[in-house]
Automatic annotation (TrEMBL):
Keywords: Oxidoreductase. Coiled coil: none annotated. One of its GO terms (molecular function) is oxidoreductase activity. Residues 134-242 form the GFO/IDH/MocA-like oxidoreductase domain. It holds the Pfam family GFO_IDH_MocA. InterPro entries: Gfo/Idh/MocA-like_OxRdtase_N, Gfo/Idh/MocA_domain, GFO_IDH_MocA-like_dom, NAD(P)-bd_dom_sf. This is Gfo/Idh/MocA family oxidoreductase. The keyword Oxidoreductase applies. It comes from Paenibacillus elgii.
Length: 337
């Protein structure tokens, strides 16, 4: 099969590390066209990255018959509309996270996907790495006894005093939970499922525009297993999952690192009785290389796609937690789900 030609909607900063750099490792994929609502911006990206075609509208790119699939790197509030329009134009879609802003949008996208029969993949790049499967096996096999709790922190310091970034606008999917909560929910979905017995969430929504600059959430599972998240734009930079079992503490630290380039991910296992530490290190990998290779295989029919229903399950839980947090602003009584 020949080289697959990608059409890119949007000129977002993430393209350098999510697409252009990873493609250097994937000879069977290449960017054929890029579109922006400002044609000089598209032309600037095309000149810099050697892209054959630059368009001044998204419609023009979708009408390009030479494009094999579309990569959507637009602002969050535009994801649903342009994913649907790409499918209607006969293009498979890889869309940056979050796939949509709410379940209503996602239902429309799911209808469009079903009507087209074309694959749609939400760009949660961390799921394309074997460390998650390894953790899932540890839990499923009771490798270190019964799982007791899961603690996750995902924080990246971020400031936007002049409100120039989508993260400062609630209506555009701003706030720490929209940015980071999807990674937590995907991890729990893969390891424990997303059918908890109860849930809770809180934030003071003190960020720009009333966004959540720090968000805390918890899911309660059977056997008293509790999964907690701290997502923040205020706390020091951390991306860490810690799983406490009866006999060991298992940590995946700095798990975002493989989104910045080709790096090693290590699982640290500490025996609770002896203190002895075992490290399981994976060969250096790049999440975005893995994600693009996976989607290419899906298009070739050699791998099954991640079901879009998983995105819906995550978005439904996202909405539930966000509603809980908003319902109990400071001064309101504690609510629980």
């Amino acid at each position: 099969m020949g080289k697959k030609r990608i059409g890119v909607l949007g000129c977002a900063h993430i393209l350098d590390r999510a697409l252009f750099t990873p493609l250097k490792s994937l000879e069977h994929l290449g960017v054929h066209a890029i579109a922006s609502r400002t044609k000089p911006k598209a032309e600037s990206y095309a000149d810099k990255h050697g892209i054959p075609h630059a368009f001044g509208s998204y419609e023009e790119l979708l009408a390009c018959e030479e494009v094999d699939f579309v990569y959507i790197a637009l602002s969050n509030e535009l994801h649903a509309e342009w994913a649907i329009r790409a499918l209607q134009a006969g293009k498979p879609v890889l869309v940056e996270k979050p796939i949509c802003l709410n379940t209503e949008e996602l239902r429309r996208l799911m209808d469009a996907q079903a009507a087209s029969g074309l694959p749609v993949l939400e760009g949660l790049m961390v799921q394309h790495h074997p460390w998650q499967s390894k953790i899932k096996r540890m839990v499923g096999e009771n490798a270190y006894g019964r799982l007791l709790q899961v603690r996750s922190q995902i924080s990246v310091p971020f400031q936007d005093p002049e409100r120039q970034n989508y993260r400062s606008f609630p209506e555009r999917g701003g706030g720490a939970f929209y940015d980071f909560g999807c990674y937590w929910l995907q991890f729990l979905q893969a390891v424990l499922g997303l059918e908890p017995l109860g849930c809770d969430a809180e934030s003071d929504f003190a960020g720009p525009g009333g966004c959540d600059w720090t968000f805390r959430a918890a899911l309660e599972y059977a056997d008293e297993v509790r999964a907690e998240l701290v997502a923040s734009f205020e706390l020091p930079g951390i991306s860490r999952h810690t799983l406490e079992f009866e006999r060991a503490v298992v940590t995946v630290d700095d798990f975002f690192r493989a989104s910045m380039g080709t790096y090693r991910i290590t699982i640290r296992i500490q025996d609770k009785q002896t203190g002895a530490v075992e490290k399981l290190a994976f060969e250096p990998q790049n999440y975005f290389v893995n994600q693009l290779a996976f989607f290419s295989d899906v298009l070739d029919g050699t791998k099954d796609n991640v079901p879009i229903a998983q995105s819906y399950e995550r978005m439904a839980m996202h909405e539930r937690l966000l509603a809980l947090a908003r319902a109990k602003r400071p001064g309101n009584p504690l609510a629980s789900g």
